[in-house]
Design goal:
UDP-N-acetylmuramoyl-L-alanine:D-glutamate ligase, about 20% strand, 19 strands, six-stranded mixed beta sheet, Adenosine kinase, small domain
Length: about 475
């Protein structure tokens, strides 16, 4: 069984993404700081910082950071509890201060759309990106091969590094990472981190709209005619309150339909990111699933969505015993509720997919494209950064995970015990033709001690889905 799967991997990585890929809308610069005793001491040395004031603040009540003491309160609380935290920097005047305090930082591309566009370009696909704000610094972080749509008498696709607008503000997210077990001194109070995690201090400058803006909007049918696969990201920034939420959803729905006017065969994917307001999230998912075919989500996120829609049984099954079969049942329940035709659940060591019939790509091709996506992600985990097509052959040395191969066997065994009509060769093929849909369980790679985990879900989903339609295009 292992040999058959490994042969598929070796064949899959020789493929090329021939489709034209579009990514929108959330891009930003990530400024990554590794917290340690020296930079925390440098932070606390600022005369504007008052630890008495910091200790009086209730961190859980800080929804946005407006001053230095609030930032220190958020950071100290997260470090002491080992929790992740995402908070908005409302006072943009603090950006210069952060640059002065944290001089030892690494800046890179952030945001799903930016990461996907760069990765597609690295794999030698034709990649397009659109973001409402494109400062010079943001543009410089894209691969030179990535193009950007602009309207100048007519719609043009120009290299993104030439398309920047001097007046656009920079959207930057400060990411404060910390390891487990580091001891930090907050004015004599010792804080020891119980686990590794990170604090994200995000900015939302005016104009950071998660959609198309300006003259480009009326030319969306023409843009749609130039692309094959679109990854739509950033909808989790939708406003929570009515009527602003409904207005935003009407706008993005109109935009997607205009893209489809230019290309009725356009394939769209949405990678899940949780929203704070679960009722608003349900409305967003219900709306976009009527326009977007594919949905990507991980094993933890699907529990949240199932619970939000009231599917307690499926949530509890995953929570109690997370496995391929419980994730399949959860994905199927979401497919019954929402209108996605493809749901891809990615987990450590394996993927579970549900495809609604009729699906435009053969399930065998979808499976092999998942092996391609897993290979891209394995090289990313091993080396970090973006994966070049030339690196993929190396994945033969990594091998598929025993986790995934075992999940294939367990899935088959559970289906048989339940009296379900699953084919005897399921463990070798990973495909179950089950009435109105296909179920796929695909073993994936696991790289110990990955160099980077940032953007892994985006990398997996985009590589898998983009490669699916190369075979469709080549057969036309």
């Amino acid at each position: 069984m292992e040999k058959v799967w490994q042969q598929r991997v070796e064949k899959a990585v020789t493929g090329t993404i021939q489709s034209t890929i579009f990514a929108g809308f959330n891009t930003n610069v990530d400024a990554v700081v590794h917290c340690n005793g020296d930079n925390v001491a440098n932070l606390l040395a600022d005369p504007d910082i008052s630890l008495d004031a910091v200790n009086r603040l209730a961190q859980e009540q800080i929804e946005t950071v407006t001053n230095k003491n609030e930032f220190v309160a958020v950071l100290k609380d997260a470090l002491g509890k080992g929790k992740s935290c995402y908070v908005i920097l409302e006072n943009l005047e603090l950006l210069d201060w952060l640059e002065q305090i944290f001089t030892n930082r690494r800046e890179s591309m952030g945001g799903q759309a930016g990461i996907i566009a760069n990765q597609m370009a690295a794999l030698e696909a034709k990649a397009l990106v659109y973001t409402a704000l494109l400062s010079k610094k943001q543009a410089s972080m894209f691969f030179p091969e990535v193009h950007f749509p602009v309207f100048d008498q007519e719609l043009k696709l120009v290299p993104v590094q030439e398309a920047y607008r001097p007046q656009d503000q920079l959207k930057i997210n400060w990411i404060f990472e910390y390891a487990k077990g580091i001891e930090l001194d907050f004015g004599g109070e010792k804080v020891v981190t119980p686990r590794a995690n990170r604090v994200i201090l995000a900015t939302r400058p005016p104009g950071a709209v998660m959609g198309f803006t300006g003259d480009i909007h009326e030319h969306l049918p023409e843009l749609g005619s130039k692309i094959d696969v679109a990854f739509m990201a950033g909808y989790h920034y939708a406003p929570s309150e009515q009527p602003a939420l409904q207005q935003y959803l009407d706008e993005i729905t109109s935009s997607i339909r205009m893209l489809k006017q230019g290309n009725p065969n356009l394939h769209l994917h949405y990678e899940y990111v949780p929203m704070k307001d679960q009722e608003a999230e349900k409305q967003v998912l219900t709306t976009i699933s009527s326009e977007i075919q594919s949905f990507g989500i991980n094993e933890n996120e699907i529990r949240r969505v199932l619970l939000g829609f009231g599917y307690q049984e499926e949530f509890a099954d995953i929570d109690r015993n997370e496995r391929a079969f419980s994730l399949y049942r959860g994905a199927l329940k979401l497919m019954e509720r929402l209108n996605f035709s493809r749901i891809h659940v990615h987990n450590l060591g394996y993927y579970v997919l549900v495809l609604k019939k009729p699906y435009p790509v053969a399930p065998e091709t979808v499976r092999d494209c998942c092996l391609y996506g897993s290979s891209v992600n394995a090289i990313k985990a091993k080396y970090g950064g973006y994966v070049r097509k030339s690196q993929l052959a190396e994945v033969a040395e990594i091998g598929l995970s025993e986790i995934g191969l075992r999940q294939l066997r367990l899935f088959y065994q559970e289906a048989v015990e339940l009296g379900l009509d699953i084919p005897e060769n399921f463990c070798e093929e990973g495909i179950w033709d089950h009435g109105d849909y296909y179920v796929l369980v695909v073993p994936a790679h696991v790289v110990p001690n990955p160099v980077s985990t940032v953007g892994m879900g985006d990398t997996i989903s985009s590589s898998c889905y983009a490669s699916e339609f190369s075979s469709v295009l080549s057969s036309r």
